[in-house]
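Hi F.,

I've been meaning to write this up properly since the lab meeting, where we talked about keeping a consistent format for the predictions we share between groups. The idea is simple: the sequence comes first, exactly as it goes in, then the structure tokens exactly as they come out, then a line or two of notes. No screenshots and no reformatting. I'm using this chain as the first example so we have something concrete to point to.
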Amino acid sequence: MPDVESIFTIICNLVTKTENTDEVMEIVNVITAKLVQQPNEKPAVRLKILINLYNLLETPYCQFYVYLKALNLAVDGKVTEYIIPSFKKIDSFLKEWKIGVPEQRELFLAISNVLKENKSLSKDSFKFLTNYLATFSGEDALVLSEAKEEAVRAIVDFVKAPDVFQVICVIMMFKLLHGIIVSVSQTPTFNHSY
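Output, unedited:
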């Protein structure tokens, strides 16, 4: 009787049999939903299957989607050590995936949260958190309000940091945070003169 990993490998190969990107996404949704359903049951094997699926995919957005599912599975299954090394390739992944700002935000915040759990990687966590916050530059007050909690976390993380970061980083962060705070605190008023 074949093992679960072999069965999923065969199922994952279905994505290579269709050229329709909508069908590929449907297959990816079904496979990933099954794999992330019980993250504590053989999480390393489930993660390996997701990585195999990722490598079979040719559609950039599908790759991003599977990577994000793998990231969440690694967190929920407590096997982040298997996915952390891939964070070094995020810049090249972003170029390949060509994802929008909302997806970048989701990715940067998820990576920052993974790295936050490992004290020796707090500097990397801070870097991804500032990347997340930087995606809010130029946004309106409503969108900026989404970043309020993480902006506070960035300040706290920065203050707690044992080593001093570059002055430019500090200036950029405070400019961004100032913009967020000012935009969120301003409430629109209507002045009617009849």
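Notes:
The radius of gyration is 20 Å.
The chain is about 65% helix and 0% strand.

If this format works for you, I'll send the rest the same way.

G.
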